[in-house]
Structures are given as structure tokens and as C-alpha cells.
Amino acid sequence: MPQYNDMIELSVEDMDLIETALRGSAASLSQAALEDGKDGSADRENTLRRIHDLLGKLHDQKVFYRPKGGVYLGG
């Protein structure tokens, strides 16, 4: 059985493109759900949930700037 590649090589630009595409897909699915009213399909809702979860995983892997010295005030 084949295994997944653990050494994925994506640049920051690649990740930004993926994130932008996922946000665009989520926006178009959400817009379609609004136009259809409350008759949204379970498949569309499942896809939106999966996109949202994947965007969360991408966000959690980002390394944000934190100064080395001094007190850090987040905000």
C-alpha cells in the first residue's frame, strides 16, 4: 500500500495561493447557500466544514513574528 510523502515542499507563496483558493471556494459555496435559502444540501455544508477545518490547520502552522527580547504584548 502506498504511503503519503512526509516531506512536502511548498513555499510561502504556494501556501498563500492555496489559502486564497480555499477562501474563494468557501465564499462561493456560502453565496450559493444564501441564494438557495434554507434548502442547503448536506454535501455543500460538509464541504464548507472541511474547507473551514483545513483553513484552521493552515493557520495553526503559521509562525507569527514574536520579538526575541523584551516583553511581548499580543493583540
How would you describe what is shown here?
With 75 residues, this protein is an all-alpha fold. The chain has helices spanning 12-36, 42-60.
How many H/I helical runs? 2
Mean pLDDT: 86
Q: Secondary-structure element sequence? A: HH
Q: What fraction strand?
A: under 5%
Q: Rg, please?
A: 18 Å
Alpha-beta content class? mainly alpha
Uncertain spans: none
The biggest sheet, with number of strands, parallel, antiparallel or mixed sense and barrel status, is:
none
Task: Give the overall silhouette.
Answer: extended
* Share in helix: 55-70%
Number of strands: 0
Distance between the termini: 47 Å
Task: Give the structure's gist in a few sentences.
With 75 residues, this protein is mainly α.
Topology:
Layout: H1 12-36, H2 42-60
Helix pairs in contact: 1-2
Key phrases:
75 residues; mainly alpha; 2 helices
